Each structure stands twice: as C-alpha cells, then as structure tokens.
C-alpha cells in the first residue's frame, strides 16, 4: 500500500515538473521561468556598486532563496524521473544542476555567485513550454546547418591559425622589442587582433616593412570575414530546402526530411515505415 502511494506521488510530481502540456505543469514551468529571470536580475543588481552597498543583505537573501528553490526542484526531478540517470546526464539535467551550484560555490570562492547567470540557459525551456514550434523548427535548421558546416569551419579556423602564426613570427623578426613585439606570442596576438579587424592599437608596426605586412594582413582580414558566413549560409539554404515538405495533419514543416513522425503534432507520416525512415547510405 505504501509503495502504491509513493508511486502515485511520484507520478503526480512527474506530471507537474516534467509535463508542460498540463495546466499544473505549465504553471510550474512559467513560475520557474520568472524565478530564473529574477535570480539573474539579482546578480546584475549586486554588481552595481551603489546598490550593493545599500541592499547587499537583501540581495544575498534573495540569491539563497533562489538557490534553495532550484535545489529542491532538481531533487524533485530526480525523484520523479522514470530514468533518473538519463535525466541527470541529459542536456537539461546538467543545466539544472549548474543552475544552483554557483550559489554553494560562493561559500568557498569569492565572486562565485556571479556564475548563476548560466541559469539563462534554462530559459530555453520557454520554446517547449509555450509550444513555439516555429522557433523549434528554425532552431533545427540552424543546428543542422552548423553541424554540416563543422568540418569546413574547422579547416578554415586551422588555416587562419596557421596564417596568424606565420605572420606573427615574421612581424617579431621585422619589428622586434623596440616596437612592442616583445615575443612571438605577443606578435601572434597582434596578428589575431589585426586580421579580425578589431585593431586595439596597443601594438603597431613602425618600420616600412612591418607596415606593409600589416596592410596585407588587414586586406586578408576583410576577405576572411566573409568565408564562415558564406559556408553557414549555403548550408542553411540547403537545410531549408530539405525542410519544405509539410505534415499532412498539421501542415508544419517536416524536419529532417526522412523523419517518420511529425515533430509538431507527433503523427506518423503516411507511407513512412521503419525501412523508409532509415537514412540513405
């Protein structure tokens, strides 16, 4: 009898903390989102010297209130989860854990409480809670485009790192200590700042040869900026083209193209069996 009552309690808690499609679950998640926003606001306020000087005690009380609430919520999620380990090591499980750890970290590390801004990641739940399927669809396209561009971007970044290493070394040889290029790492730092068109101006070449090399690097920098943008744009256009097919039930875009079920309404696509849903080799 006791086991049955425990199971019933666990199911009720699960419905509230995990199921945003119920009235209680949606209300719980919306309250949680407001608490996250207020907890982040308290950290911002603490960083303002005048507010910290006059209201530090109240801010600390509020921060510990939020930390305890998020700790209890995390423990309830573990208790009610059907597969606790899967939740703990899932993306949202790790985010939920990180959300309250900085509060306890502040007991041992000064300034640790400012890390609670990572709670902003928990705001990603708003897309699930409010059922903003359009945003989820666009997010899937962006994720696919970034994943497809990953290897091209890695090659691109490797090429840029190689370039700034060579240019930085040459600039160290040409300019030397007199112009502020005191070491190769410092020269590479200058090359990175220059090629990204940031241009802090804390170090600059003084000799004609160094200025010529800097000019070449600046021109290369303008061309390099467009490369990753073009790579991602092409992949996004390709992913968008693949997602033009719509669900016959709710007319939401189907993504990915070979999906067996609609990500919006959950209906099985007509004519899509297990064999058809397997990716092509």
Report what the structure shows.
The protein is mainly α. It contains nine helices and no strands. It is flat.
Chart the SSEs and their pairings:
Layout: H1 2-18, H2 23-46, H3 49-80, H4 84-88, H5 91-105, H6 125-129, H7 133-175, H8 184-195, H9 208-242
Mean pLDDT: 78
Instruction: Kindly report how far apart the N and C termini lie.
Output: 53 Å
Q: Strand share of the residues?
A: under 5%
| Structure class | mainly alpha
How many distinct helices?
Answer: 9
Number of distinct beta strands: 0
> What's the main sheet like?
none
Radius of gyration over all CA atoms, rounded: 26 Å
Show unreliable segments.
273-281
- Report helical residue fraction: 55-70%
In one word, what is the shape? flat
Order of helices and strands: HHHHHHHHH
Brief rundown of the structure:
By secondary structure, the chain is an all-alpha fold.
What key phrases describe this protein's structure?
67% helix, 281 residues, single chain, 0% strand, mainly alpha, 9 helices
């Amino acid at each position: 009898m006791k086991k049955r009552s425990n199971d019933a309690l666990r199911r009720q808690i699960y419905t509230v903390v995990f199921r945003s499609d119920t009235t209680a679950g949606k209300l719980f998640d919306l309250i949680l989102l407001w608490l996250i926003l207020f907890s982040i606001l308290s950290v911002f306020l603490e960083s303002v010297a005048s507010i910290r000087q006059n209201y530090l005690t109240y801010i600390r009380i509020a921060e510990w209130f939020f930390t305890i609430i998020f700790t209890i919520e995390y423990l309830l999620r573990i208790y009610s989860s059907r597969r606790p380990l899967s939740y703990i090591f899932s993306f949202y499980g790790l985010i939920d854990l990180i959300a309250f750890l900085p509060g306890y970290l502040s007991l041992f590390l000064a300034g640790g409480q400012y890390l609670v801004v990572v709670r902003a990641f928990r705001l990603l739940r708003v897309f699930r809670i409010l059922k903003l399927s359009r945003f989820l669809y666009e997010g899937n396209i962006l994720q696919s485009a970034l994943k497809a561009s990953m290897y091209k971007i890695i090659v691109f970044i490797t090429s840029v790192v190689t370039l700034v290493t060579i240019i930085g070394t040459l600039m160290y040889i040409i300019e030397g200590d007199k112009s502020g290029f005191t070491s190769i790492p410092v020269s590479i730092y200058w090359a990175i700042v220059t090629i990204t068109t940031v241009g802090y101006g804390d170090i600059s070449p003084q000799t004609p040869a160094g200025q010529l090399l800097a000019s070449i690097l600046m021109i290369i920098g303008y061309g390099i900026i467009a490369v990753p943008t073009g790579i991602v744009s092409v992949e996004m256009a390709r992913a968008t083209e693949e997602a033009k097919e719509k669900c016959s039930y709710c007319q939401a875009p189907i993504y990915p193209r070979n999906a067996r079920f609609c990500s919006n309404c959950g209906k099985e696509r007509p004519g899509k069996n297990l064999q058809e849903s397997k990716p092509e080799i």
